[in-house]
Design goal:
Largest sheet: 4 strands, parallel
Order of helices and strands: EEHEHHHEEEEE
Helix content: 10-25%
Number of helices: 4
Mean pLDDT: 89
Strand order of the largest sheet: 1-2-3-4
Distance between the termini: 47 Å
Structural class: alpha/beta
Number of strands: 8
Radius of gyration: 18 Å
Low-confidence stretches: none
Shape: globular
Length: 166
C-alpha cells in the first residue's frame, strides 16, 4: 500500500508592515533598524508603510531593504504613509515643491528595474494568484486602502463598503 499524496506543501511566509524606512545596517542601530536576522522564506509579504512619508529616496531605500531579505517571492502592498503611490491623494495634497510626476517616479521605483532586481512585486488593489517554485499555490487579495484617518493616503470613507465582492 502506498502512502497517501499530501495536498499541502510546506511554505514559509514572513509578513512585515510599517517598516517606515528601517535600516538593515547593524552599525547604525537606532529605533528604525531591523535588529534581528530574518529567516529565509518562500514568501515575504510587506503590508504597507514602507516609508515614513513617501519620497523617491525613501522608496529606493525600501527596495534595498526588501532586496536584502532572503525570499523567493517578495510582495509589497502600499500603505497610507506611502504618499506618492496614491495618485488621488498625491494630486489632492501637493505641497510646495511637490510635482505630480513624483507619483510616476514612485511607481517606477516600485515596478521598474530596481524592484525587478530586488525580486519585488508591487501589488495594487486586486486579486492575484501565485505559484511558487516549490509547487505551492496561493491567492491573495491586496488593497492599500484603509478607513480615512488624519488625511493620509489610500483613505476611504468609514461608511463605504470597499471590500465586499459583487
Amino acid at each position: 500500500m502506498s502512502a497517501p499524496i499530501s495536498s499541502t506543501i510546506s511554505t514559509r511566509v514572513l509578513i512585515l508592515s510599517d517598516t517606515h524606512n528601517f535600516d538593515i545596517d547593524d552599525s547604525n542601530l537606532n529605533q528604525y533598524t531591523l535588529r534581528n536576522a530574518l529567516p529565509a522564506v518562500d514568501v515575504l509579504l510587506h503590508c504597507g508603510d514602507l516609508t515614513h512619508c513617501g519620497g523617491t529616496l525613501s522608496f529606493k531605500k525600501a527596495i534595498k531593504l526588501l532586496g536584502s531579505i532572503d525570499a523567493t517571492l517578495k510582495l509589497v502592498i502600499a500603505g497610507n504613509h506611502d504618499l506618492e503611490l496614491d495618485r488621488d491623494y498625491w494630486t489632492a495634497y501637493l505641497d510646495e515643491g511637490d510635482v505630480i510626476e513624483d507619483h510616476d517616479a514612485a511607481l517606477e521605483i516600485m515596478k521598474g528595474r530596481l524592484a525587478k532586481e530586488a525580486n519585488v512585486v508591487y501589488l495594487e488593489e486586486g486579486t492575484y494568484l501565485f505559484v511558487l517554485e516549490n509547487g505551492a499555490k496561493f491567492t491573495i487579495y491586496a488593497s492599500p486602502y484603509t478607513p480615512a484617518f488624519c488625511d493620509w493616503a489610500f483613505a476611504y470613507e468609514h461608511k463605504q463598503d470597499r471590500f465586499s465582492q459583487p
